[in-house]
């Protein structure tokens, strides 16, 4: 059984990860979308195992303690994280899975899955990013400045990623991500790893 | 000025490199197709600089002597090879160039351009390759056996390539090659190398 790819889509807050991912769901229905775990209460219409895996605080902390979370963070008194089991089961079943997560979380995932495909979604420019952060609503100048400073630091972490996709236009960004997934399936290392044993033996005898 | 990509499409004799390349010309008109040099006589309708760079034997040997051929080989008393100038001028002008060449020639090109994108076109199976070689015409069993043996050896050289594209269906193979080119343009290393100097300095200060 060929293993699926673990694809991590990340980038600074405000770059449009969520929007790109929701368009990708339509364009790439063959991809499995990772479901996060959280301790926050389900909202109306949210289903356990579809929108989130809903956990109690004790349950979540126990998952952390036994290494069952690939990455996690606490926001506004609630835990959010990526359960390891779901990711491993998916790639072991031969399907590709995509994780849409924050920059720091992505680097945690890389510790466990260095063979993952790490894609950094870039704003076309810092000015555009600022407009998106300002455009979100009623944040004060201090909040905007602080978010811009965090974004600049996060962009510095691009060096730990494999690919940079500029989110200048959603369709174009999605096309680039689709191309990256197709190309990664053609990488020689994966191709050779997925050959039947008999062929691999023949190939290595040529070496 | 961003540099273009050097893309090398290779694979065993009979795998369909030429056919794939001719379909790619329609699908990817933005790619520059490398023009080989040869000492053979122009055939009716062939134009110098379009189909081939036509050279005398002395001229070709002088090009070899001063390192102006990226790779070359002699078939049936004629030289064929890839002029280095044309490749370098194209990528320096920011355009991508594709070379469709034999497996051994591709490895020579890699010595000069290790940063190239090396794609190995694979037959769906050795049986299919054999059918294609047999189907070409009137070769004797000895010739077929010898070609199959060469093909098997060439497939063993896939380990020096970056990508393996199975030529199961021409449209699918072309789509994979297009995806590889798009993905390679998104690679972090190329993205960072092509950033303006001011941004690079800012990014390295974060390091």
Automatic annotation (TrEMBL), chains A, B:
<dbReference type="InterPro" id="IPR020590">
    <property type="entry name" value="Guanylate_kinase_CS"/>
</dbReference>
<dbReference type="InterPro" id="IPR017665">
    <property type="entry name" value="Guanylate_kinase"/>
</dbReference>
<dbReference type="Pfam" id="PF00625">
    <property type="entry name" value="Guanylate_kin"/>
</dbReference>
<dbReference type="InterPro" id="IPR008145">
    <property type="entry name" value="GK/Ca_channel_bsu"/>
</dbReference>
<keyword id="KW-0547">Nucleotide-binding</keyword>
<keyword id="KW-0808">Transferase</keyword>
<comment type="similarity">
    <text>Belongs to the guanylate kinase family.</text>
</comment>
<protein>
    <recommendedName>
        <fullName>Guanylate kinase</fullName>
        <ecNumber>2.7.4.8</ecNumber>
    </recommendedName>
</protein>
<dbReference type="GO" id="GO:0005524">
    <property type="term" value="F:ATP binding"/>
</dbReference>
<feature type="domain" description="Guanylate kinase-like">
    <location>
        <begin position="4"/>
        <end position="182"/>
    </location>
</feature>
<comment type="function">
    <text>Essential for recycling GMP and indirectly, cGMP.</text>
</comment>
<dbReference type="GO" id="GO:0004385">
    <property type="term" value="F:GMP kinase activity"/>
</dbReference>
<dbReference type="InterPro" id="IPR008144">
    <property type="entry name" value="Guanylate_kin-like_dom"/>
</dbReference>
<keyword id="KW-0067">ATP-binding</keyword>
<dbReference type="InterPro" id="IPR027417">
    <property type="entry name" value="P-loop_NTPase"/>
</dbReference>
<dbReference type="GO" id="GO:0005829">
    <property type="term" value="C:cytosol"/>
</dbReference>
<keyword id="KW-0418">Kinase</keyword>
<keyword id="KW-0963">Cytoplasm</keyword>
<feature type="binding site">
    <location>
        <begin position="11"/>
        <end position="18"/>
    </location>
    <ligand>
        <name>ATP</name>
    </ligand>
</feature>
